[in-house]
Design a protein that fits this description.
Elements lengths: L9 E5 L18 E5 L2 H5 L14 E5 L8 E2 L11 E5 L6 E2 L10 E5 L17 E5 L2 H6 L8 H4 L4 E4 L2 E2 L2
Length: 168
């Protein structure tokens, strides 16, 4: 796949219920964007994707809506350090975010539809300048400016939006 699709810059995999893995050799190293929504078998094998080897991957979006067993994300070493945008959508069983310490280039983090997400992770990158949180009821109170339990974790972020309202 890598040699045949060397000019491929983005891949969208949406509800590919039978897809279990990427071809041998993985995704092309120059891939800039990847979206994986509702592909349960593929997501179950995420530690074998080799995303950390993708030297150009800047945009990554996930939806775990068909993956009831995903309660924690991302695992340490799963994501490339050069990632600038991470979106997590419709992940009703996701409770814990971790593994952000090495994402030193991350600028944009968007979280939407994660009803069980309990709190934001410790050690959000200082590079993070844009945070959007929608439809995450447990986070809404925790991210209130000046008084929420997670406010100290996000107070350095230039633009913070919670449920459509700009709070910083």
């Amino acid at each position: 796949m890598c040699t045949r699709l060397s000019s491929l810059e983005a891949v969208n995999l949406v509800y590919c219920s039978e897809l279990e893995s990427f071809p041998e050799g993985g995704l092309p190293s120059n891939l800039d964007g990847l979206r994986i929504f509702g592909s349960k078998k593929l997501i179950a094998n995420r530690m074998h994707w080799g995303l950390d080897r993708l030297i150009c991957l800047r945009y990554l979006a996930f939806s775990f809506d068909k993956c009831e067993d995903i309660v924690s994300f991302p695992e340490e070493g799963l994501l490339p350090t050069i990632l600038t945008t991470l979106c997590i959508f419709n992940s009703p069983n996701l409770k814990i975010l971790e593994g952000f310490r090495n994402l030193t280039a991350l600028q944009h983090l968007f979280i939407d539809g994660c009803n069980e997400l309990e709190c934001l992770p410790e050690g959000l990158p200082t590079s993070l300048s844009d945070l959007g949180i929608d439809n995450c009821p447990l986070l809404t109170q925790r991210c209130q400016k000046g008084r929420g339990e997670d406010w100290p974790k996000i107070s350095h972020i230039t633009r913070v939006r919670v449920d459509g309202s700009l709070i910083s």
